[in-house]
Design brief:
The chain is mainly alpha-helical. It folds into two domains: 267 residues, Up-down Bundle (Growth Hormone, Chain: A); 215 residues, MFS general substrate transporter like domains (Growth Hormone, Chain: A), CATH 1.20.1250.20. It has 17 helices and four strands. It has a two-stranded parallel sheet with strand order 1-4. A two-stranded antiparallel ribbon has the order 2-3. A hairpin with a 2-residue loop joins strand 2 and strand 3. The longest helix has 37 residues. The chain is globular. Bound molecules: phenylalanine. The site of phenylalanine has 5 residues, from helix 16. Pfam families: PTR2 (PF00854). One of its GO terms (molecular function) is peptide transmembrane transporter activity. This is Proton-dependent oligopeptide transporter, POT family.
Length: 553
């Protein structure tokens, strides 16, 4: 039996045994809602990553095959797609805050995503090779993801008190759902799509999304989700906004109208980069403005003898102080600062799917028991390590908390960056000191991914959890959307850094020694120096950020 199929079968059996264990061991500590959201998000990510596993391959080998420069076209569309996928959460979050509430936003997003996957499957069967249908399907997934992904994360925060000690643990378990989905998807949809039929692969992604949607919909009709995430009452009271239409109807119409525009933009990748930069500047500007306004409000309150908490010196707040406008403003500033460190983290972490895979292909000794391990298989190490380590991290945070030794959120970011940087130290050392014939032993890659994954677990779920702690309740959805923008930015920068290692930078007759030198130099500068430097800068900022968090851990 071939290696991928064996891995696929083992993967499913492992997950089928692992998930019940995780649920059973955490059932008493966490509300049921965690496991519902875990399941829904697991299936949504199954669809998202299942489709992504096939996307570039399908474009370059089938869809654009007859066109000139198929590969660079495919990569261009792929870049625009990933950037826009994390651009739309800003809108999705805003709509959830103001109009839909989390539940409705999640359902609407899930429906759009599911349709997108199914039309992608149809594009190859009924409407063979229709470019319009192809781009339209991607647009459905982009817009749908904008409603689904940020809001399911914000919604999870609703089931815990603002600064609940279980929160980081809950998000870590939730994050495991994300990665179980991506692990199974990459194996399964990749296999079905490449070996059997592309469109069955896409269809399978659609079925995954349908499972997640069904799970969420059924559970939202029971008591598990309580009365949380419902449509904000003010919306119900508000009458028609324009042309006799109420706000929700306008959102539905607006989302549908956005689809052809998004579809068109996918084809022009420069516009997307511009859009990304403009949106980032706009959003960061807005967050800072909001923070300054809140601080000003606090000052006005002081002048008019308002709430005592508002004029206590920084960091010396009483309980009352933690809810003051000053505290809310300061917390938004913390989000803004961490936004940039989050982007740096992803810019280097995301080398995994790009330059690191090519590096593994060219410069890693991959013979194992007489067969050569394919370079792409190394990418399943990250979700695998997450599955195994997420419960451990969730447990460690709680234990440390009990001993009053849990690192604060900014400190966890420092740890995340430091571990990412150490991962690069490992691979650079392997390349510089232990390579034979310009081939690095496999163990260095495995250890590097282990450190990258531990870094991810220290920072990424904690970041999601942080947003639900630090945002004023009324704009959680929006701030979460803004947070996703830093991922979008990180992915974009990842592409630029990846290009530094491209074969085009070397002369035609370059040997494996030359490529190895180029990789290790790039990783030394960006992965080690920049990342560890960022960790150091953040470390210096930690005391200030902690003050600005006003009592939130
Ligand atoms: N792998 C993560 C996921 O798909 C990447 C990510 C982290 C995306 C945080 C958004 C926010 O969820």
């Amino acid at each position: 039996m071939d290696f991928t199929l064996t891995l696929l079968i083992f993967g499913w059996i492992f997950v089928a045994a692992w998930v019940p264990i995780v649920i059973a061991t955490n059932r008493k500590t966490h509300p049921m809602a965690l496991f519902v959201l875990f399941g829904a998000e697991m299936w949504e990510r199954f669809s998202f990553y299942g489709m992504r596993a096939l996307l570039t391959l399908y474009m370059s080998k089938v869809l654009f095959q007859a066109m000139e420069g198929a590969e660079s076209r495919a990569l261009g569309v792929y870049g625009s797609y990933t950037a826009m996928v994390y651009l739309f959460p800003v809108l999705g979050g805003l709509v959830a805050d103001r109009i839909f509430g989390f539940r409705k936003a999640i359902l609407w997003g899930g429906i759009l995503m599911m349709l997108g996957h199914f039309t992608l499957a149809l594009e190859g069967t009924l409407f063979e090779g229709s470019l319009f249908l192809f781009f339209f399907s991607l647009a459905l997934i982009i817009v749908g993801n904008g409603y689904f992904k940020p809001n399911i994360s914000s919604f999870l925060g609703d089931f815990y008190e603002k600064d609940d000690p279980r929160k980081d643990g809950a998000f870590t378990i939730f994050y495991m759902g994300v990665n179980i989905g991506s692990f199974l998807a990459t194996l399964t949809c990749g296999y079905v799509g490449e070996r059997i039929n592309w469109h069955y692969g896409f269809g399978l992604a659609g079925i995954g999304m349908a499972c997640g949607l069904l799970l969420f919909w059924i559970c939202s009709r029971t008591q598990v989700l309580g009365d949380k995430g419902l449509v904000p009452p003010s919306v119900k009271e508000r009458g028609p906004v324009v042309a006799g239409l109420r706000a929700p109807a306008l959102v539905y119409i607006g989302s549908l109208m956005a689809l052809p525009i998004v579809a068109l933009m996918l084809n022009i990748s420069n516009i997307v980069s511009g859009l990304l930069v403009v949106t980032t500047i706009g959003i960061i500007g807005y967050l800072v403005y909001e923070a300054v306004q809140l601080r000003r409000k606090a000052r006005v309150m002081i002048a008019s003898g308002g709430r005592p908490g508002a004029y206590l010196p920084e960091g010396e707040g009483t309980d009352e102080d933690t809810a003051s406008p000053k505290a809310e403003g300061d917390r938004l500033l913390v989000v803004t600062v961490l936004f940039f460190f989050h982007a740096i983290f992803w810019a280097l972490f995301e080398q995994a799917g790009g330059s690191l895979t090519l590096f593994t292909d060219k410069n890693v000794q991959r013979m194992l028991g007489g067969t050569e391990v394919p370079a792409s298989i190394f990418q399943s190490l990250n979700p695998l390590f997450i599955m195994l380590l997420a419960p451990v991290f969730s447990w460690i945070w709680l234990r440390l908390r009990k001993r009053n030794a849990e690192p604060s959120t900014p400190m966890k970011f420092v740890l995340g960056l430091a571990q990412l940087g150490l991962g690069f130290v490992i691979i650079v050392s392997g390349a510089k000191l232990f390579a034979t014939n310009a081939q690095v032993p496999m163990i260095f890659v495995v250890l590097m991914y282990l450190f990258h994954t531990m870094g991810e677990l220290s920072l990424s779920p904690v970041g999601l959890s942080m947003i639900t702690k630090l945002s004023p309740a009324k704009i959680v959805g929006f701030v979460m959307g803004a947070w996703f923008l830093s991922i979008s930015l990180g992915n974009k920068i990842a592409g630029v850094i990846g290009q530094l290692t491209a074969a085009e930078n070397l002369p035609d007759e370059a040997s494996a020694y030359d490529t190895l030198a180029l990789y290790s130099q790039t990783y030394l500068v960006w992965g080690v120096l920049v990342v560890l430097g960022a960790a150091l800068v953040l470390l210096v900022l930690v005391p200030r950020l902690r003050k600005w968090m006003h009592g939130i851990h």
